[in-house]
Amino acid sequence: MTVRPANVAPSCAPPRIHYVCSKVGSGLIVGIAMDSKQYPVTHTEAEWRQLLSPEQFRIMRAHGTEPPGSCALNHEKRAGAFFCAGCGQKLFASAHKFDSGTGWPSFNDPVPGAVETATDRSLGMVRTEVHCSRCGSHLGHVFDDGPPPTHRRYCINGVAMNFQPE
Ligand SMILES: [Zn+2]
Q1: Cα 113 vs. chain centroid, distance in angstroms?
Q2: Which of 12, 63, 75, 150 could be stapled to 103 by a disulfide with Cβ–Cβ 3.0 to 4.6 Å?
Q3: How far is the CA of 83 from the centre of ligand 1 (A)?
Q4: Among residues 84, 87, 135, 155, which one is catalytic?
Q5: Nearest to 130 by CA among 119, 144, 121, 140
Q6: Which of these CATH numbers, 3.30.70.790, 2.60.120.10, 1.10.3720.10, 2.170.150.20, describes 45-165?
Q7: How confident is the model at residue 123 (pLDDT cuts 50, 70, 90)?
Q8: Cβ 76 vs Cβ 163: under 8 Å
Q9: What is the pLDDT of residue 37?
Q10: What pLDDT is stored for residue 4 in this prediction?
Q11: DSSP characters over 128-152
């Protein structure tokens, strides 16, 4: 597994406060093995490469991270919902989105049952990885420094989702 340094400068302002998705920034291939759990939606690697863009595949199937500020969904403020780009499952409602200043779409809370978590010990850190409960695609990470009431901050790669306005 090769580690490729980020070569895309963030197009958004740097984080205002301590919200950071990853100390090493983005554009890295993290290289965590996907677990062997059977999900309701499964595809071979070749099928995933057909279904997803190269960037989506790198993030969703190889635990990559998009450059902060790179996805237009970061600025999506309309009422609606965010769906998994891998299987179409509804993941987050716009009512739970907030501006974290990180450059990644951030949410208080997922749709109940839509995401699962795993411990991510890559890069010398212990983080809580978030993936789709239906297809197992990597979405991002969750931190406990979010705003009330849940104090959770789901830091999600925008390219892993599709937005549908109400
Ligand atoms: Zn999915």
Answers
A1: 16
A2: 12
A3: 8
A4: 155
A5: 140
A6: 2.170.150.20
A7: confident
A8: yes
A9: 79
A10: 46
A11: EEEEETTT--EEEEEES---TTT--
